[in-house]
Amino acid sequence: MTSVLRLLVRSCTLVVIGVAAIPTSRTSVMPRNTLPKLVVAHFMVGNTYPYSVDDWTKDIALAHSKGIDGFALNVGGGDWQPLRVADAYSAAANSGTNFKFGRVLVSTFSGENCYFGASNVDAGWQATIKDGLPGVFFLPSFFVDPTTFKQYPVADGFSNWNGGWPMGNYDVDFESDNGYLSNLGGRAFMGAVSPWFFTHYGPESFNKNWIYRSDDWLFARRWEDIIANRDRVDIAEVITWNDYGESHYIGPIEGAQPNSQAWVNGFDHQGWLDLNQYYIEAYKIGSYPSISRDRVFLWARLFPAAASTADSVSRPEKADFTQDFLWAVVLLTSPGQVTLACGPSVQTTNVPAGLAKLKLPLTSDCDASSTVSRDGRRVIDFQPNGFHFSTNPTMYNFNAFVAASP
């Protein structure tokens, strides 16, 4: 097995950004149904300024233990970032996992307007990443109408970055992916999976201040769509491991944040990492795995979407797309009674064995909790520390608080 690299396109300047594994036997274009099922997690190298090889080693070990095959390393322009990439390669090479490096799979974020001095985009990419290079497999995320994919024979497949979230006020679905898949002409496909999106930078900073609708168990629903269509999805990219600025991280909060501390600190998301493991296994083997122990996964915003604050940065765009609910995914070894509670809002549901998705309205100041009972005996009594919903926020924080029972 060898590496997958991802490429970030900034003003048509190419920057290497990634790692995962593909078969060494792959040469140029190969039918997508011959690829193994792979899962990579998008990783922001820009947040690793204080990282050492040991830090990379810990992240790789944790990701590998949850079924992730590699990191897609997003590298920016800082002259220190290639040094961190070198450390990542060193850690992976000595990790004893399948996080290995070598042959290149290139993806992009954008790049559909890059000519590189050629007469057209396809010729430009061909000359830049294919001609004279050994076995590059090109899987770009071009933001174009999928019906134009035939204009890019240089591509060995395509990635649907924006498929990870609904682009409007509706639940996530597989519609945009179908548009990609129907125009691939047998080429490979990489689908995006993401649990959340909130960014809150003012005009004096990055000037990014909006949400994507993450209600109705976005992470679970998106994974279930990917799994239902696994025969057509060759690689799943989890967005992201550590993009704190956009609130969709599933790894530990560590390294150096991009001035996102105000909405990230205290909002650990590693409960999603455990839930991710369950879905990854289903995606790879083609059926949902048996459940060996009861688990409860909870997440919610800690403040009402309609609340007003004295925040110096305005209320995020699309804030009206979200509702005030506690979202729960429950994995049960056998049927049980699941209770969700937060202050006066309490709901008990008879849940069969397997996976169930539940929700609870959040209406007043309260501490969230959940129990699972069988035959009158509590088998889970989960009261996560810090899971407090407050109706009086001091800033517009639309990040998710995530908790998972032990």
From TrEMBL:
Keyword line: Signal
Database matches in CDD domains: GH71
One Gene Ontology term of the molecular function aspect: glucan endo-1,3-alpha-glucosidase activity
Signal peptide region: 1-27
InterPro entries: Glyco_hydro_71
Stated name of the protein: Glycoside hydrolase family 71 protein
Species of provenance: Pleurotus ostreatus
